[in-house]
Amino acid sequence: ANIVVQCENWWSLAKQFASRSPPLHMLSSTVQRTLMKALVLGGFAHMDSDTKQQYWAEVLHPLQQRFLNLINQENFAQICQEEAVKQEIVATLEALCGIAEATQIDNVASLFSFLMDFLSSCIGLMEVYRNSPETVNLIIEVFVEVAHKQICYLGETKSMKLYEVYSKNNLGRKRLDVAAEEDQYQDLLLIMELLTNLLSKEFIDFSDTDEVFRGQEQSSGAGRAVSAADVVLYGVNIVLPLMSQDLLK
């Protein structure tokens, strides 16, 4: 990381990717996700504070700004199914998966806050794209990656925040096209993977309460302790009604 951030081409690549400049936007989703992961890891090189601030301003800020500008448009409900809009949403969700995959103990505090802002903004997207299983699955996949990579480092307050955003998104609460179950079971697999990751908090815990987040403002989580098992049981209650005999086969 220390070597690549001194390379002009790296900064150029970061700017082009952040602005979705051609031809980078044509890369496959897997490559886009991996590239985002690499750019985030590069940002944790040893840089002076001004350079680091500039780096994040050029890598992460445009991603967030473009996404918020898009979903906050007054006519978003009318344009959300347009191909260009869906491509932008999908590209952003792929990038979020890449950001989550870049999580390490020394960057989890920064990345968790950034991703929670995004996931809070995603509340409602599940409903908007309920007829687009690929997009819905990608939203769930962002949660899967965040839980998989970050929950082992989260103290109680931050875990509560993740549980709350997860429950507000009401992930997987309904599937409209029952006839196409066999083609759409991917959402259930993802939800079960998410529940498994959430449950892992009960036995894989590297957090020192919220020590890893010290210096950040603490929200009041007192008196609202919820175990990972409670959250998973809540999730199982969502999943079970969606299970049919044919689907289990």
From TrEMBL:
Descriptive protein name: Exportin-4
Keywords per UniProt: Cytoplasm, Nucleus, Protein transport, Transport
Lineage top rank: taxon: Eukaryota
Record lineage: Eukaryota, Metazoa, Chordata, Craniata, Vertebrata
Sequence intervals crossing the membrane: none
Keyword flag Protein transport: yes
Gene Ontology cellular component annotations, sorted alphabetically: cytoplasm; nucleus
InterPro entries the UniProt entry points to: ARM-type_fold, XPO4/7-like
Similarity comment: Belongs to the exportin family.
Coiled-coil region list: none
Cellular localisation: Cytoplasm; Nucleus
Single biological process term from Gene Ontology: protein transport
